Amino acid sequence: MLTTNYKPVKTLLLTALIGLQGLQSNAQIKPGTTEITKWQYGKTGAVSLTYDDGSMNQFRKALPVMERLKMPATFFIITGSIPGSKYHGRFIGRPVKDIIKESATVPTNDQNFFERCSATGYLGFMGTIASHTQAGSLYDSGKKEKAFKVLDDIYAKARSGELKPGYEPNDEFKQSVGSTWNDFRKDAAEGYEFASHSITHPSMPGLDEPNLLWELEKSKADILAQLGPKHTFSAECPYGFENDRVMGYALKIYPALRNRMPEPWLKEIDRASKQTPGSTDKDYIQWQRGATTKTPLPMMKLWVDTTLNHSNTWLVLVFHGIDGMGYEALPSTLLDEYFQYIKSKNDKLWVATFGDVTRYMRERKHGKAVASAVGNSIQVKVSHDLDGKIYYLPVTLKTYVPSGWASVTVTQGAKSKKIRSAKDEEGTYIIYQAQPNQAFVTLKKG
């Protein structure tokens, strides 16, 4: 997990800008003073549209709306259901027949719970996956005895022959069937992020280490092989669990988890919380909201308005079913109206994938911008100490310039752009993009 105590601050230029002081007129802050803005493009807040499970209507109904509005999104996909995936659901451990036999004389307890819960979906009978899901959830919430009873009951049925032979995945897996890796490659080329939601959508708090790692690592391996490293950055462990043990494994495999990212500078408000963004000593707030069929559209719009009324809030919207398919399915017509509302705030809100917002925040928190005077120009060096193969986004800089600079030519390497300056209570400034850890950025009048 990436953490740092470094806080980007405005780089106050003292003797380095003596050469520019003669150009300064009535500015309250020295020309060259530079900061990395809190959000990309100097916007007020960020919004990420995220979808769980990869059910077909997300792509048939919701994706065309976002394409029309040119809005990116993140899809957390179940990889085991996609044709061509190398890795599929399985139980790693002793023969399940031995586990079933042992359950006749040894009740489920703390010592055998994880093995039994991991094996439950693969006992060779239909309907057992529901018991796995229920037991994992109960165990996570501290209701161990109830979790043990759920497993004892399903193993008793397996021993007695009450269950129909076969294998049946959970509903989330079944509803994700239909998309192909070719479909995802095409959408990824348009800027959509595809991230891991495991191989089979299991209840991870109920998995032992080998089966937990199989679901996490092998889903990542298929995404890497099919879509490339950019799409192995983010993940969401199914059902939104924030189980400490699961997070400990998952955060070593994926740099960004929607479940939890415990940086000291980030406050997280999960979907179940009734808390709203307010005063905090954290630099950023990740505010997750999950609309259900009972959530009125005015409330959903209020989430956007609340984000606009704060300078540190990242609104992470979580969607599942669309048009009758999937959990808490929302009408695509409602999403169309909602996304248009978000789009109408484009001047103040940065709409970006889950992965890109995470990258930007970390680049800023690990970054610095240092400016100096070179003749009648300002040079800015922007850098961060992160792995450039993973953290490759440009950052947005705000640099104060002499008050007489009505327009400024910004050059970095072979790229050059003319930008009109603006004014605030501290002086004349420009907002511009720069690539960290590359050539100096040169600012010149005109």
From TrEMBL:
Superkingdom of source: Bacteria
Protein known as: Polysaccharide deacetylase family protein
Assigned keywords, A-Z: Hydrolase, Signal
Domain annotation NodB homology: ranges: 44-82, 175-249
MF GO annotations: hydrolase activity
Cellular location(s): Secreted
Organism in which the protein naturally occurs: Mucilaginibacter angelicae
SUPFAM superfamilies linked: Glycoside hydrolase/deacetylase (SSF88713)
Signal peptide: 1-27
Entry EC number(s): 3.-.-.-
CDD domains in the record: CE4_NodB_like_5s_6s
